[in-house]
Amino acid sequence: MAKIDLDGLTKDYGGVIANDQLSFRVESGEIFGYLGPNGAGKSTTIRMLLGLLKPTGGTARVLGADIRDEKSLIEAKKRIGYLPAHLGFDDGVTGERVLEYHAGMKGDSRLHELLEIFTPPIERPVREYSTGNRRMLGLIQAFMHDPELVIMDEPTSGLDPLKQEEFNEFIRAERDRGTTIFFSSHVLSEVRRVCDRVGIIRQGRLVELEAVETLLTRSGKRVRIHAADEVIPQLSALDGVVDESTFPGGVQFIYTGEINRLLRELARYDVHDIDIKEPPLEDVFIHYYGERTEEKSNQWNPNNE
Ligand SMILES: Nc1ncnc2c1ncn2[C@@H]1O[C@H](COP(=O)(O)OP(=O)(O)OP(=O)(O)O)[C@@H](O)[C@H]1O
Q1: 15-19, 94-98, 102-106, 242-246: lowest mean pLDDT where?
Q2: Taking a C-beta distance cutoff of 8 angstroms, is the pair 22, 5 a contact?
Q3: ipTM of this model?
Q4: In a domain, 40, yes or no
Q5: Which family is it part of (predicted)?
Q6: CA-nearest residue, atom 18 of ligand 1
Q7: Nearest C-alpha to atom 26 of ligand 1 is from which residue?
């Protein structure tokens, strides 16, 4: 059974249709990345899944509970971990007190191991916390009761690169022990490293739903060849070559054809050196973020790491 199942989920804020008939599933035991430019509608979906906002059309099920059915959603939420984008902790109390409060409501069977990975200074009042320490406290509270499903809104914002990497490792291990993870993100490198599948939302509509590997395969390879000047025009003209550009002593392009065909073609030329890579995920996703100057999406920063 899918852990999350959206069925025409719609939110009209009265003028702004933030989610427009979204239908997709998050399957058991996968890490699903929910991507989209600023204002695309990610937080709106997440807040509806947690029952914090009411849909104006369609519905969704989380762990089998219809989000319109308050009672069954409350029951399901005991088995869900949630990390909101904005962490509204009581600033006056210590991190330890915050965790005790959450433990009282839902349990804390994994608290000690989480405190070894994420390391906020729990003896200090939350008001003294840096953004990263707040995020870590939030992550501990999201996972401490060993939930079956974890929903997170931009979980790594504010974490330093080392903690981000620890977070990546941690959620991969969580997935391997069977936890299902759904999170929104702007950090493409993180999505590449940890997600099994992604959904991309733009102006409230789902524009892509695909395995990360498939997206990358479909997007071709980035090829950089050093060769004699006279063969460069012929290399640039090969079938399947797009976005070609030359540099002194070589040419680079995206190759969208069959890789063996490229290798056979290249064997006919005097090639000095070659580098074949997956395209950066930025290249793969960038066309979903068209009209960037006309929308709020111009805040999208694909290099945000
Ligand atoms: N309470 C509200 N009332 C009216 N419009 C809203 C409300 N909340 C969000 N919106 C609008 O709905 C759209 C989607 O917003 P949402 O916060 O879901 O996007 P997002 O993808 O999470 O963005 P970001 O990446 O910037 O956090 C935006 O146009 C936003 O301005």
Answers
A1: 242-246
A2: no
A3: 0.97
A4: yes
A5: Belongs to the ABC transporter superfamily.
A6: 41
A7: 38
